[in-house]
Amino acid sequence: QVQLVESGGGLVQAGGSLRLSCAASGNIFSVNTMAWYRQAPGKQRELVAALPSGGTTNYADSIKGRFTISREDAKNTVSLQMDYLKPEDTAVYYCNTNWWRLGRFYNYWGQGTQVTVSS
Hints:
The chain has 119 residues and is mostly beta strands.
């Protein structure tokens, strides 16, 4: 089993910054993707940023140049630095890790952390 615990959400004014962190524990395969998704009220969950082991980052167009994803494999953590926040960034942000192994897809989610950006 894998557990993901997010922290760092909160309320911030437009133009401000927040840093989200996620700690993963359990039976995590060493070759994996760690990612952040978000879901705003009435909308589908969407990918914000993803970073595969030894790979390159993938960012949603809406946050390019403002958000930065990073990971520290020795600690099984992933972070999302969010700068120049906009009201439309308001959502519940979810940490995710996933990998393929022996023909099976493993996909795990955190409980989510609320980010609210006021105008």
